[in-house]
Amino acid sequence: MDVVNFLKDRTRIPVIGAPLFTVSYPELVLAQCKAGIVGSFPALNARPEEKLSEWITMMKKELDDYKSENPDAVVNSFRC
What confidence score (pLDDT) does residue 12 get? Predict the structure, then answer.
């Protein structure tokens, strides 16, 4: 699956939330995804390193829950 088709139904407007060092955290990224744009954060923001897998797991679960509760919402994904 190419990126254009993957994002087509998941994006409200063609915007990517910039990954900002020490600013982008799960709460901001989740808000971006729920608004229908691609959320992102630098993996380095998750310190110590073990936090990264915790963040990813938590964000996937929260977005899955949000999609279940809001089936008509345009919800995008995140990248780190």
Answer: 73
Can you tell me the distance from the alpha carbon of 48 to that of 6, in angstroms, rounded to the nearest whole number? 32
Tally Cβ neighbours within 10 Å of residue 63: 19
Tens of pLDDT, residues 33-80? 999 898 999 999 999 999 999 999 999 999 999 999 999 998 888 775
Cα–Cα distance for residue pair 71/5, rounded to 1 Å: 20
Q: How many CB atoms lie within 10 A of CB 50?
A: 8
b/e sequence 14-47, b meaning 16+ C-beta within 10 Å: eeebebeeeebebeebbebbbbebbbbbeeebbe
77 token code pair? 């994904």
Q: Where are the alpha helices (DSSP H) in 1-80?
A: 3-8, 26-34, 51-69
